[in-house]
Amino acid sequence: MSDVAVRLDEFFDSADLAPSRLAALMKTRPAGDAEPDARGLPWSAAVQRIAPEVKNLPPIDVPEIAAAAWNNYHTFKPYTDPAKYPPESTIPVRLLKHTITSKHRPSIEVLLNEKRVWKITFELDLSLVLSASVAVRAGKIVEIRPLDECQADGSLKWAGVLLAKRDTKPLKLGPVISLKDGIAI
Amino acid sequence: MTGGAPCDTTIRARHRRWSIASAITPVAIALAANASLGQAPSVQVPSVVGQTFDQAVCILQLHGLRTQKPPYVPPPILIANEPVVASQVPPWRAQVPPGTLVQVRLRPAERAPSVSAVPVIPSGARLAAARGLLEKYDMCVKVTPPQALKFPQAVVVRETLADKSPVSREIPRGTRIVLYAGIPVPSVVGQLLAGAETILQRAGLTVGPIARTGPASPSETVTDQRPASGTLVAIETPVSLTVTGPTAPPHPSPNPRPPIVERRTVPYLVGESLDDALRDIETHGFAPGPVARQASNETPGTVVDQTPSGGTEVLLPLPDVSLWVAAIEVPDVVGRPIGDAVAALKGAGLSARTITLVASGGSPGVVVSQSIPSGSLIVPPLEPVDLTESAVAVPSVTERTLEDATRALQAVGLKIGSVSLTHAPAPLGTVTRQTPAAGTLVVPPFPGIDVMASALPMPALIGQSREAAAKALADVGLEVGSWVPAASVKQRGTVIDQDPAADTLLSPPFPPVGVTIAAVHVPNVVGQSAAAARQTLASAGLNWRMPEWSGLPFVTVAGQDPPAGALITEASAFVALGLDFRTFRNLSALSVLVLTAGVVAARTVVRGRSSIRSQVEVRRQGGAAEETGIYLDGIPVSNGHSLIVDPAVQLRLNPDPGIQSMAPTDVIVTGEEDGRV
């Protein structure tokens, strides 16, 4: 995880992820997510535990998301050739403005006596628009310099219920994103 | 029919009349002319083609010829349609000697068009008037004996067709109708013998034996007569008289006739009712003739025409007065819907008396027949018309399912009426009884056929446990629509009400069953100490679950699940309690540690689980909103605000790297070796 990972309550409006609001939105028991012995823990009680934890779901790591998108299309594959690009050399690669979409399905499992009784799956859809200059070294992306403001929007849903939504607006990533260990291409 | 019909009978056909006197004259002239010229006498053969044999005989005899009946005579088509001459030899206009035999061949008569409403001549009607009336209807009238026409007093004794069959009201044109004539014996008692003889002779009778009670005298008076006056006798029947001398007192006539006058004026009868008209006819000294009916818009039963006309001066002997009365023509309602038929009858001034249903196979609801034929002329008292209406027979739907029964009824234009259910030893949903019964005639749209169908009795569930009730319903194929908890003093979890009620008869498709389960209200224990909450819940018969350190004296219940007022039906259900540790704030950290350590130590002793110790810690968080809470495995189970549901609850957060896509995919502009970003 990079240092610029964005928590959900930062990416979205923090008020949207208030536990009381989420508990109200999630008061209806979902169908199919419960284990057979879930009767020991009523949903109304479970949601009281779940709502405060939503904001603690894994944060949005823009560099990892971007690198995964770039790798999917072998954008940087040519720079993995050590004969052509020695490991000690750093290759700057400029990327035009493009859009990256990312769909995540994080979940929270509720354990009762260490046995799972509920699994609550969320739908996190993101859209990032950015242009950047990327430094590649030894087959890894080691640095990202945004050339323009990264525009981001997204939504968080649970069982079809919209819990939080972010309209397109700039996402501060900093002038230089250093990836300590780099992201393998 | 006879070949030798008397030629002195007047032959009528289509209002033409020949008589012997007028017909012989041209033959005689022709014979005379031939004789004067010295030639062999000859006559021109007339045409008899199309005439009946009797008429042909008469015509040929008038021309001095003769004929004989052919060997084959075809039978009449109708009663009144005699065979007619098809051909003749010698032919028409041939010159032959008088007395030549003219051979004819007969063929069946053509069916003549029928004439409706031909009046029936009642017995006693004046012969002349009756004949005139029938001739108006183009009937060929024959009078027997023919000389009765000479006597005005002659009356009709009986009317029939030529072969003595009954007279039909609708008979072909030109039908021969025979009127058998008779003479009503006039009363001559009290008359001088000479006058009595004149009266009898004028009436067509003769004077029979005369019995005298004294010497003959010109002033003898008739004291008795046989037959009695008014008796209908044959023409020229002798009437026996008993006379007495001039001193003998005259016997009073039982039915004195009006004084004989030279002329009378026929009364005006048009517009009067038939009864009034007949009374006026008698009053004015006339005799009523035939009464015919005529379709008219006038009030039925009133006289619309008369013969002779009113005001006519007539001489003796007085003619009978024939009347035409307004009648209603019965409309043709066959084939019309029953409603229209009744309305049509009502519009014509008639009424429908009975409507009989009959399964005719035709369109139901229409009139199949009517008791009084259409075109009939009827007068008051108006007879109601009986109608026969086409109907359908109710099919048998017993032992069929309701769906089949519905289809069977719809096939004949019927439908299911009410459906009542019964617990019968028959497959569910089959019809066990129907009303009306099969075969009953009904006319669609019929309100409906009420049927009784076998049904399922609803099981009794009250008092049973939820599981037993569910099984009882499933055993008979029923499903639970909803389990509704309701506060009750009954044992928790038992059925206290059901919908439908027990023994209610159900027919497929079965409705979902609503079951009400006895439940208890969860009391409000928030704010109570843990001990008090336990006691409150125990008194309500409820179980509870709360952290084991709830025995701490400063711990109160901060929340509960289910909330207060909720209904609990399960016997094994529990109320989870959350405890409030905000009182920690008022304690020093050392006190908390001591207390906590005491609890842990005590619990360790009691439960012998040292592992629990490591799960409990007290953490003080910094900041203005300093709060204290208890954590299990790093998960806060109480921070002074949140509810501790169960210390055994844990959460596990699962990340998802996600699935990424990019557009456009080719975004690289430059790739500089050994360059700097």
Mind explaining what this structure looks like?
The complex is a heterodimer of chains A (185) and B (677). Chain A is of the alpha+beta class and 185 residues long. Helix content of chain A is 16%, strand content 43%. Chain A is built from four helices and seven strands; from the N terminus they run H-H-H-H-E-E-E-E-E-E-E. In chain A, strands 1, 2, 3, 4, 5, 6 and 7 form a seven-stranded antiparallel beta sheet that branches. In chain A, a hairpin with a 2-residue loop joins strand 5 and strand 6. The longest helix of chain A is centred in the middle third of the chain and has 11 residues. The radius of gyration of chain A is 20 Å and the shape is elongated. The two termini of chain A are 16 Å apart. The model of chain A has no long low-confidence stretch (mean pLDDT 85). By secondary structure, chain B is an alpha+beta fold. In chain B, 18% of the residues lie in helices and 31% in strands. Chain B is built from eleven helices and 45 strands. In chain B, strands 9, 10, 12 and 15 form a four-stranded mixed beta sheet that branches. In chain B, strands 18, 19, 21 and 24 form a four-stranded mixed beta sheet that branches. The longest helix of chain B has 19 residues. Chain B starts with 10 loop residues before the first strand and ends in a 6-residue tail after the last strand. The N terminus and C terminus of chain B are likely disordered. At the A-B interface, helix 3, helix 4, strand 1, strand 2 and strand 3 of A face strand 43, strand 44 and strand 45 of B.
